[in-house]
Structures are given as C-alpha cells and as structure tokens.
Amino acid sequence: MADVGYTPQAQSGEGSFGDYFALLKPRVMSLVVFTALVGLVVAPVPVHPFIGFCAILFIAIGAGASGALNMWWDADIDQIMKRTAKRPIPAGKVMPNEALALGMALSGFSVVLLFLATNALAAFLLAFTIFFYAVVYSMWLKRSTPQNIVIGGAAGAFPPMIGWAVATGGVSIESILMFGLIFMWTPPHFWALALFMKSDYSDAKVPMLTVTHGRKSTRVHVLVYTLVLVPVAVGLAFTSIGGPLYLAVAVVMNAWFLKGAFDIWRRDETAAEADNYKVEKSVFKVSLLYLFVHFGALLFEALLAPLGWGGWA
After folding, report:
1. Fewer beta carbons below 10 Å: N end or C end of the chain?
2. Are 178 and 148 in contact (CB under 8 A)?
3. How far apart are CA 94 and CA 42, in angstroms?
4. Cβ atoms within 10 A of the Cβ of 117, count?
5. What is the mean pLDDT of the chain?
6. What is the spatial distance between Cα 222 and Cα 260, in angstroms, rounded to a whole number?
C-alpha cells in the first residue's frame, strides 16, 4: 500500500522492556500458549513435564516473534488505525529495524530449540506458522484480499496441532479438528469486530470484508461461517479427546454463538447505528470466550480421564 506513509510520532528508539514485550502481542500469545498446551496435554502420548514446559515456552516465543514481525511490517497502517496507534512502533518507542531484528532472532531461536527439545515435525509446524503469519498473511493477504482473515486464520490455528506433534510426533484427526475449530472461528470473530470498526480498516485501506463488500454482506458471511463452525466444534466431542463434558459445553456455546450470528444477520444498519452496534459488540465478546471455553473443556476431559470421569470410556 504505497499510498499509506509511515511517519511515527518520534524516532527515539529508547523503548522500555514493556514496549519491547508489547511487540510480542502478549494477548495473542496467551491464546497460543493455552491452545498449544491443550493440544499437548490431550495427546495420547505422555510428555515429561520439563520437556512440555520447554516446548510451550518455545512455542510462545515463536508466537511473539510472529507478532514482532507483524508490527514491523504493519507500522504504516497501525499509526492510522485508532485501535493500533499506540503500539510501540507508531508511537515512536521502538525503531522498526529493532522490531525486525527481534522478530527474526526470536523466530530462529524458538524453532531451533523446539527441534532440539522435541522433534522435527513440531519445529517445522512452528516455523511454518511464523512464516504464514508474517509473510503470507501480513505481507500478502491482509492488504490484497477481503479473504485475508479466512485464509490468514490458519496461522492462529496451528498451535494445538504443534502441541499434539510435540507429544506424538505426528498429526491425527483430533489435531486436525482442533485446527479446524480455530480456523473456522476466526472469520466470524474478526468480522464481528470489523462491523463496528469499519472506519479503521477503511482509513488504512485494508480490504476487510466490511470495506470491500459492505456490512450487509459481512453479516451474511458471519452467519454462514458460524453455521460451518458448529459441526466442527461439536464433532470434536466424538473423538478420543472429547466426552460428555465437552459435548455439553460445545452445545451450549455454539447455540449461544449461533444465536448471536443470527441476530447480526437479521440486523439492518439503521438499528445497528441507533444502539451503537450493541449486538455486534456483544457477539464479539462471546467470541472471545468461545475458544477458551472449548479448549478448557478439552483440558478438563483429559485431566478427569485418569479418575475415570473424562471421555466416553
């Protein structure tokens, strides 16, 4: 996007530890860590606690590396969007080249150490995740297509698959469905946000679906993707890592989320503007809980299994 110039407020480059830590997108990292941990714990192969701790640490560092590279590349549009204008680079607290160096260094560090601590497949998946988020999504998809969130959602969907690979050294239907759960959740989650943040993306010339196709079309997409998400989420209940607890949670959460998507679909812009997008904001908040609750239920199923209470057995 050559017409979006980057003119940060300052170029001191004298950021604090907190500024450099913010480059790693700690909120996103927390979701990565949690879903990767669940993928590792629910796997059928036990992992030594120290190896597991190291694996999750290196996955977290890899996620942070992705965040730093994303902030380096997106500095020009981050300064335009109200939601991101206070990030370290557009705020002038960290130099762009420092963010790039940090992202590259942490990328190599995390992948190599995950390989040494676990196995080649887990390291490859982590490396591919970093590449996908930094290059495929940030550098290509985000600024070129309204399907940016759909395809780019794969980057956030890999962590449980990586955790599973750490334990088993392979891929299975369980890890694929955990990937699918996050992958299908990502579009309605972000589009619910985009419905009440349209001006940000428009100002930054990011082709979010709300900008290129309008809010009406976006509302239809939210409902359609949620309808596809539901069987993936519920289907996990009938695999080796599911059980009655997860099934109950999945049914309740998906009914709640689906109702929200239906409410978004039937809304018109006049009503939405009149109440300042109250419904859209509510559905977005539900979407924030959605993944944590699902993966939390999977975790509880695994922890209860040794007591004879988890799973279908």
Report:
1. C
2. no
3. 39
4. 18
5. 92
6. 10
Is the CB of residue 90 less than 8 Å from the CB of residue 75? yes
Structure token digits, residue 151: 């395809």
Q: pLDDT by residue (tens digit) across 273-291?
A: 899 999 999 999 999 999 9
What number of other Cβ atoms are within 10 A of residue 261's Cβ?
Answer: 26
Q: What tokens were used for 253?
A: 């959460």
Q: CATH says 15-170 is which class?
A: mainly alpha
| Residue indicated by tokens 């709300």 | 210
CA atoms of 131 and 76, how far apart (whole Å): 20
pLDDT in tens, 60-96: 999 999 999 999 999 999 999 888 889 999 999 999 9
Contact between 246 and 42 (Cβ < 8 Å) = no
Which of 60, 67, 126, 128 is CA-nearest to residue 99? 67
Structure tokens, 187: 């579009």
| Cα dihedral 156/160/166/170 (nearest 10) | -100
Three-class secondary structure of residue 177 per DSSP: helix
Say whether 5 sits in a helix, a strand or coil: coil
Question: Per residue in 291-300, pLDDT tens?
Answer: 999 999 999 9
| Phi/psi-derived region of residue 308, left when phi > 0, alpha when psi is between -120 and 50, beta in every other case | left
Q: Which two tokens stand for residue 164?
A: 């599973």
DSSP state of 138: I
In the block, residue with structure tokens 């002038």: 92
Query: What is the pLDDT, as a whole number, of residue 15?
Result: 76
pTM of structure: 0.91
